[in-house]
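#struct-pred

JT: dropping the chains for the assembly here, can someone run the whole complex?
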Amino acid sequence: MPLNRLFDWFYTLFGMRRSVRLGIYGSINVGKTTLANRISKDWTGEEVGKVSPIPHETRFIQKKEKIHIKHRGKNLTINLLDMPGLATKIDYRSFLKYGLSKKAARQRAKEATDGVIEAIKWLNNVDTVLAVMDATEDPLTQINITLLGNLEARNIPVIVVANKIDKKKADVDAIREAFPQYPVVEVSALKGKNIGQLYDAIAKYSKGAK
Amino acid sequence: MKEKMKLKFDFVSSATLDDKTKDTRISFILNKVKDGTIVVTDGVLKPEEEIDLIKETMRRVDDGFPGIEVASLKKPMKGMMNVFEKMVDSKERVQSLIAGLTGRPLEKTSMRTGLTLIGPARYIKKIKKNPNSFSVLTEI
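RK: done, full complex below.
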């Protein structure tokens, strides 16, 4: 982190702006890749990764670099980093019900555990974080609390993204009540609802916006 | 006849954990949890320690140990106590950075005031958390 700050200071000193490394973090199956695809498709026409109902579909960090966002007079270049879902447990047996063979399930679990470790290591290399939460689920999970606590300790700007608001069970107020100290943007990444508000927030809270 | 299963809880004092470095503290907890014990600590890990606990858990996941469930209750710090806590955290981060760069052993750090429960995911099915309490559902 101190090195990142030094680079930021150097770039600012010479009037240069580097790309903002925007990390998309959260638990499994909260819609991180769907959101990454939505952002990337909006500005590049291309998707970042595959979406699946099977947990831990994203097991490697997926990147989309040099995405130029021009939104309501603000310009921002981002390197989008779609992170594997954070988890405290990964049981290969949970993949068997999706029709995976034992061997494939074990391999998926191994890759998923490595993915969690990589995502955690990358916390030292992101500038801004979108902490994605499933608005239909209880937000007070240890993963969400630990993630936000670490971002705060590292002074990394964070936007809480309350995703899946297109679903009937969605309760954004529960997220706002659980984490009142953070900006919360409610979206449906799948339907593209409120994504403009998310770009407003990214431009507002990212250090590299101008 | 169904065999009776036993669930073991270890309640660990803050004095025991304060006497350890971050890495040895995490190992101490995980060694117990991997053996099937539910650990309740008199104190809360710092955010950096919590994330390291998750990272170390992932390294240890295997067929018999799918991971952990964890919940903590932290005493909220207000005003000057909050400022003091952040100062201590900053000092410990610098010490940790220096230790990493120089290869010096990590120094002992104290835990925050609160309560933490860490248990094997194969027994703990769900933890329902509220801001000031949590309930644990086990299945053995």
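JT: nice. The radius of gyration of chain B is 16 Å. Residues 79-102 of chain B form the longest helix (24 residues).
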